[in-house]
Design a protein that fits this description.
It contains 5 helices and 4 strands; from the N terminus they run E-H-E-H-E-H-E-H-H. It has 111 residues and is of the alpha/beta class. The protein has one domain: Rossmann fold. A 4-stranded parallel beta sheet has the order 2-1-3-4, sandwiched between helices. Helix 1 crosses helix 5. The longest helix has 14 residues. The protein is globular and about 30 Å long. The relative contact order is 0.23.
């Protein structure tokens, strides 16, 4: 099992798929043991309830859902705190910069 689980969300889970691949490549090259996956915003609840997620990143196109996600993630971490949540940097998203988005997730996870 991976030490970290990072969930990316977008409208349909499709546009973040390439970014997941780029983030996994960056994680491997940096020696980070992480499970990174993407899903549609509508599927997020099931993943939040069934998996131990360390960080949630929203695609820029669903940034308007941040408050809704914050409520879903409240008190859901293993320590009883909120699961860290962020919106993927628009430039990094557009460039599919997996290393930069991974660094954003690492900052959220590690405080």
């Amino acid at each position: 099992m991976a030490k970290q689980t990072i969930m990316l969300n977008c409208a349909a889970g499709m546009s973040t798929s390439l970014l997941v691949t780029k983030m996994q490549q960056a994680a491997e090259s940096q020696g980070i043991d992480a499970k990174i996956f993407a899903c549609a915003a509508g599927e997020a609840d099931a993943h939040i309830e069934q998996e131990q997620i360390d960080c949630v990143l929203l695609g820029p196109q669903v940034s308007y859902m941040k408050d809704d996600f914050a409520k879903k993630l409240a008190g859901k971490s293993t320590a009883g705190a909120d699961i860290p949540l962020g919106v993927i940097d628009m430039q990094a998203y557009g460039l599919m910069d997996g290393a930069k988005v991974l660094a954003q997730a690492e900052t959220l996870i590690n405080g």
